[in-house]
């Protein structure tokens, strides 16, 4: 077989297939041809980018409009709230306070009545044996030891030095020595008993007053 015969043999089945397709299409009822859409259209990068940009711009425009509306509503409500607050503050606005001066904080007022079951009324407060010791006007007022010691008479001696032990025993004190060579009444630094020398009696009796009785 030659080359031409081989080509003719290849073209024969193609023609038979085309004839069969034409017969099948003729027997089928005609159908509406679908309109080309974006899905079956050939993709074009420039046109697709433009359509996407326009859709994004539309969405951004809608969001901007809604934001403007919400902002207007917020500003309106904020203005109304500010007006209401300013009206309230002007009605009950306190007097201006000078911050340079120190503010004196006063104590809270005392309660009028009792607030505990075990509490006594205010008129009966600080009374009774529990509080008697705090009232000095009802306490015994004995004379102090200084006043009592100044009632002791002067002990006269002929020596220039005397010893005093406070009487000795548990009520006494350590023995100390007192000089009596000066013309004055010398006292014990422990018990306060007075001592004087007989040579200075006339001088002490001539004084208008003495802190201890001379006899």
Automatic annotation (TrEMBL):
Chain spans, region Disordered: 1-47, 85-138
Domain Zinc finger CHCC-type: 160-195
Source superkingdom: Eukaryota
Pfam family, one: zf-CHCC
GO cellular component: mitochondrion
Gene3D superfamilies in the cross-refs: q5lls5 like domains
GO terms of biological process kind: mitochondrial electron transport, NADH to ubiquinone
InterPro entries for the chain: Znf_CHCC (IPR019401)
Bias-annotated ranges (Basic and acidic residues): 1-22
PANTHER family: NADH DEHYDROGENASE [UBIQUINONE] IRON-SULFUR PROTEIN 6, MITOCHONDRIAL, NADH-UBIQUINONE OXIDOREDUCTASE 13 KD-A SUBUNIT
Protein name: Zinc finger CHCC-type domain-containing protein
Species the sequence originates in: Fusarium euwallaceae
